Amino acid sequence: MQESLASKKIRAKAIYRSLTKNYPNVRCELDHANAFELLVATVLSAQCTDKRVNQTTPALFKKYKTIKKMAAADLKDLETLIKPTGFFRTKAKNIKKLSEKIIYEFQGAVPDNLEELITLPGVGRKTANVVLGHAFGIPGITVDTHFGRLSRRFGWSKQNDPVKVEFEVAGLIARKEWTNLSQRMIWHGRRVCHSRKPACGACSLAKLCPSFGIGESDPIKAKRLVKTEADFR
Hints:
The protein is 55% helix and 0% strand. It is globular. The longest helix is centred in the N-terminal third of the chain and has 18 residues, at 5-22. It has 2 domains: 5-26 and 141-232, Endonuclease Iii, domain 2 (Orthogonal Bundle); 35-135, Orthogonal Bundle (Endonuclease III, domain 1). The protein has helices spanning 5-22, 35-44, 50-63, 67-71, 75-82, 88-105, 114-117, 125-135, 145-153, 162-170, 178-191, 219-225. It has 12 helices and no strands. It is mostly helical and 233 residues long.
């Protein structure tokens, strides 16, 4: 029997309450000091772990401290500095071009709205919502691979397209919680609800999740699969 929208909303809110209890003090796991650093770090995080990005950005931001300096950076030098994050040629080109665009089209300030952010090279809705939520305090849903996977496992969406997932989930959870929801979903996906072998038996959402049992159900074995904070620093 297909779940009604009203029932789905009730269950979604229950899941979110549990996520909030499990991860009360969520934060962006990309190290940054301002909106521009977060923008660059998020661009670098594509197909790369946050841990690797955080190991890479200190040298990058030390050498290119401002948007103006980043825009004037030597492309080959940028490539060398960010090489560990993968796809470094494309990322370096995008970082340089987005820096130039911010200077010449946005008066040197990172835009604080989605419509303008997604016009920057290498910036899509996911990156834009990360920046809006964590740098400007503007609620946004960040649909990365973890968020999309959990949304489908929770029965919130059947879609694979990130934009469609974003809009469906937006109708289930209050707008003011979107940024924290995104972070808590990502944390849970990284720590417990893994892609290949979710730790179902160690998951506090077991009674609420329609996908319980697709992973390890034995509590002792499942607990061994759970990752901790140390795994991401």
